[in-house]
């Protein structure tokens, strides 16, 4: 989660439909609003250290091949398909890497510049259903399409500021997140945060309006997730997770923080500058949503802050809720609290720095005679980690979900 140097940009999480939304859709939304909302009560007493074996039944690792030109530094977004892993390092290398599930580097896309087929700053990306076309969102308002081998296909100019996007289940319709309140070209001087946009006819439907206030602007990472025809999305400080399905928008899930909720009154106070607000923010206790959305038929995953990051796992069939302030790796004694970055079928994908695995191995060796170790998973961890180098790219950790 990144605080910009100037972050007093209006943010809202109140839900309305603008006049540019069709009347029938507004009626459907109102009708579904109460029937489709699931309230998750977040009790302080339920936030705990969770053993990985309570949620997962297997763990394995993928070492990502180093590129001759550019080395992956950080994983800002990861999209997994049946054959490939697409990873965006948007700040340090401004490169999108494509790997297979064995960690072999298939291709990389680095097209920094102002010319055709080039971007200045990659904000977000999407991969089409069959994994053959990659769309990269440039901060300058362009959607650029590339093939698997990095060859440039085309670009589309977007007429307004977009920070994140998700393609709906056809070739021309998108969901856009437009965080800057200057997006007032939606009629009646309306600023809009989430919109549905058609590339062909440039038709805009404002799904969620912006109501100006003093909430800081966050550089959002993964605020859209989908499974089959369901798309969920949210944003920082917004306790609601919305679902868009078959042209119907609902409040799908609400995180009810109760008496531990971050105080709304904090944002009524004035601060001289961004630094002063950040310092005051860090001293104020309370829980708030920091979406890192993932979804399949088993779980909905996100995260929130309460003193530190808390992982939220909601099991859709059993309605079980796990709030993991610490996710302890008891599967192979490897590193705990590994950031979760993606999901493919029943495989949750986390990441860990190579040096942390090496340090963990040294800790294990200082406590245990590894020549006498028998547990298979621990032996696999040791063998994998002994082949690592401190300069290796981040390691992918594959955690298999238990059957519900």
The CATH homologous superfamily is called: TolB, C-terminal domain
In total, how many domains does the architecture comprise? 1
Main β-sheet: number of strands, strand sense, barrel status?
A: 6 strands, mixed
Distance between the termini: 31 Å
Based on Cα principal axes, name the global outline: globular
What CATH first level would be assigned? Answer: Mainly Beta
> Which bin fits the share of residues in helices?
10-25%
Oligomeric grouping of the chains = single chain
Helical stretch tally: 4
What's the gyration radius in Å? 22 Å
CATH topology name: Neuraminidase
Q: What value does the average pLDDT take?
A: 84
Please identify, by name, the CATH architecture: 6 Propeller
Give the amount of beta strand, in percent: 35-45%
Secondary structure class reads: mainly beta
Query: In terms of per-residue confidence, which ranges show pLDDT below 50 for 5 or more consecutive residues?
Result: 1-35
Q: Using DSSP, what is the number of strands?
A: 27
Report on this structure.
The protein is mostly beta strands and 404 residues long. The protein has one domain (23-401): TolB, C-terminal domain (Neuraminidase). It is 12% helix and 38% strand. A hairpin with a 5-residue loop joins β14 and β15 (204-209). The longest helix has 14 residues, at 354-367. The protein is globular and about 65 Å long.
């Amino acid at each position: 989660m990144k605080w910009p140097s100037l972050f007093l940009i209006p943010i809202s999480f109140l839900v309305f439909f603008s006049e540019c939304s069709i009347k029938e859709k507004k009626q459907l939304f109102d009708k579904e609003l109460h029937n489709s909302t699931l309230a998750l009560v977040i009790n302080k007493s339920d936030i705990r250290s969770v053993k990985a074996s309570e949620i997962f039944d297997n763990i394995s690792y993928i070492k990502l091949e180093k590129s001759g030109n550019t080395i992956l530094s950080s994983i800002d977004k990861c999209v997994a398909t049946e054959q490939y892993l697409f990873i965006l390092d948007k700040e340090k290398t401004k490169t999108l890497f494509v790997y297979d599930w064995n960690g072999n580097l298939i291709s990389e896309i680095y097209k920094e510049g102002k010319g055709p087929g080039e971007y200045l700053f990659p904000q977000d990306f999407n991969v089409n259903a069959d994994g053959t076309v990659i769309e990269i969102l440039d901060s300058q308002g362009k959607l650029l399409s590339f093939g698997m081998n990095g060859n440039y296909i085309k670009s589309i100019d977007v007429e307004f500021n977009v920070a994140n996007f998700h393609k709906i289940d056809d070739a021309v319709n998108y969901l856009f997140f437009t965080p800057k309140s200057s997006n007032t070209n939606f009629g009646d001087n309306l600023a809009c945060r989430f919109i549905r946009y058609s590339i062909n006819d440039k038709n805009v439907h404002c799904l969620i309006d912006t109501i100006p206030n003093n909430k800081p602007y966050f550089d959002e990472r993964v605020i859209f997730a989908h499974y089959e025809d369901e798309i969920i999305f949210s944003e920082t400080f917004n306790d609601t997770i919305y679902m868009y399905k078959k042209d119907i928008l609902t409040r799908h899930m609400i995180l009810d923080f109760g008496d531990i909720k971050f105080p709304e009154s904090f944002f009524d106070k004035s601060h001289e500058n961004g630094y002063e607000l950040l310092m005051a923010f860090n001293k104020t206790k309370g829980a708030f949503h920091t979406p890192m959305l993932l979804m399949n038929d088993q779980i909905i995953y996100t995260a929130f802050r309460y003193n530190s990051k808390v992982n939220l796992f909601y099991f859709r069939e059993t309605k079980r809720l796990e709030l993991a302030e610490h996710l302890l790796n008891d599967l192979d004694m490897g590193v705990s609290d590994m950031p979760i970055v993606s999901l493919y079928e029943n495989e949750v994908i986390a990441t860990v720095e190579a040096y942390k695995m090496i340090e963990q191995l040294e800790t294990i060796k200082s406590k245990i005679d590894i020549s006498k170790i028998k547990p298979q998973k621990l032996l696999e961890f040791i063998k994998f980690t002994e082949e690592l180098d401190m300069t290796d790219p981040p390691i992918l950790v594959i955690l298999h979900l238990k059957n519900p």
